[in-house]
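Below is one protein, fold included:
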Amino acid sequence: MNSSTHTELANHAWSVADLLRGDYKQADYGKVILPFTVLRRLECVLEPTRDRVRAEYDRRKDQNVDLSRFLGKAAGHSFYNVSGYTLRAIADDSGQAAKHLLTYLGAFSPNAQEVMERYEFAQQVRKLDSAKLLYQVVGRFADLDLHPARVSNHQMGYVFEELIRRFAESSNETAGEHFTPREVIELMVNLLVAPDDDALSVPGTSRTVFDPACGTGGMLSAAEEHITKLNPSATVTVFGQELNPESWAICRSDMMIKGQKPDNIKFGNSFSDDGHRGQHFDYLLANPPFGVEWKKVKDEVEREYDTLGDSGRFGAGLPRINDGSLLFLQHMISKMKPVTADGKGGSRIAIVFNGSPLFTGAAESGESKIRQWILDNDWLEGIVALPDQLFYNTGISTYFWILTNRKAKGNEGKVVLLDARDQFTKMRKSLGDKRKYVTADQITAITNLYAEALDAAADPEHPQHAKVKVFANEDFGYRRITVERPLKLRFEVTDDTLTALAASKPIQRATDPEALVTALKPLVGRVWPTKRAAWDALRATMAEAGAPWPTGAPFQKAMRDVIGVRDPDGEVQLVKGSPEPDPDLRDYENVPLHEDIDEYLRREVLPHVPDAWIDHDKTKTGYEIPFTRHFYVYKPPRPLAEIDAELKALEAEIQALLGEVTS
């Protein structure tokens, strides 16, 4: 089936929106169209064995046996329906459409019923019936040919994808809650699985694949197809979890149709309700929502962090509350298979991120600690930068992170950065925010370049040398140092000084501010180069006026803060014999982890500010991956003469056009 055919099928299903308009908000169209599409697909799949299932049901319904085992076998699938209804028959009896449709739904196997329940389908049936639209909607879907002979499982995925995209657009989903285009999934699966192609070709191969944010199951399906294409006899078992009810229902029904175990697709939040607790998988991949907060599960996540620590999933650290991307990655890492003593086992991970997880978070923040944990354990194999505008509901730049706990010998201790931002072709017609796509040839080129990344980075003559860089894990670490400079003050009394002294709370608590100001009035205009000289003059003047000089530290500090004026040539203030740092002159520097910070100070700082020093007690260690900085290429500005000539040409063109209008 070509793209026009699956678009035609999606158009047929979405045409029901014309019937819904007025009775439903545009954002709610998908709540009707998606479950009816699933229902029609299930009906078409079950049609060849319908009579056999009913006969088996009639024969065994009064026996005290587990009917699902016998009926599933008769249907040839993990789901079935024991009624004699069809959508066409229900549509033809408009007066009883709601009653018959609900009876039809109740005759499905429990796993299929659960899928429809997640859509709150019974509620939609009643709403359509009260609006006298139900029989028309049922009839429209009864005319939709989704039989497997015409629409394969893979092709059905395209139809679902198109419907979901339209639903997401009509309901104005946030930029992070997008759906992954097929070519992006294909590239991701290539990078995930390609290093294991030889091992996967071995007869009898069995692999497990897991997606903790599986959506409609597109990534799981693509991974399964990739492996079975390499080895048709391979056994691939997929697992997933999804929070969105409609997406979960579609994925679950897709698994039922394909003969996978639908129970492997769990419903719920992966952070607070891990549906695959204690399980480990060969391949893990995900495209979690970008920049979505995890406030709803904050208590559960923090409880696991506090009570289980490194024994739990989130022991490395917690990211800021408004972006749970790195929580997904920690969750996936917890499900990697351990590597055995003989080098067997292990897992590979591929995840789609926006730019935020690369660098968000200061040194020793939750994000920085998570990055450090990953790099210290040598799990990060590579990061691939993708073109922007690849996704339907967001045009932001994205990155593949590839991780594994069984790196190839040459990759140990190293991280590959691959810049594929120019590997795209513009679409003739955009789909939402998707204006670019990656062609099959470009997917192959990126996959091959990733495979030979070490050679390409080491060979300046390689045609793609500029697109690949290889770093040691510790190259992404740095120490955040605090550079201090001494506080230098001169001391003076002015009218403004006296006003500030009178308003100072510490001075008001220590003495009579009016008496203090009156006593110091004769000193207005006086300046002293040192604190000792200033204090001697102040004490003497106050003593002459009969005003007390409080001895408490708060009074002394308040006096200095008001009378002292910052002056580059002023006196250095001391605290216990050491220079007091000036907060206004404090600076911070990020020093690469492998560099001596004192040597850095001597080379980079002291030539400019000789009195600076490092406060070692404030030094912090951080990790970030500044991807774009490593691939930045300076482009000099255009010559002014060229810009000036272009402006004059445009001015002349405008004058000519104005002349045509006025003539």
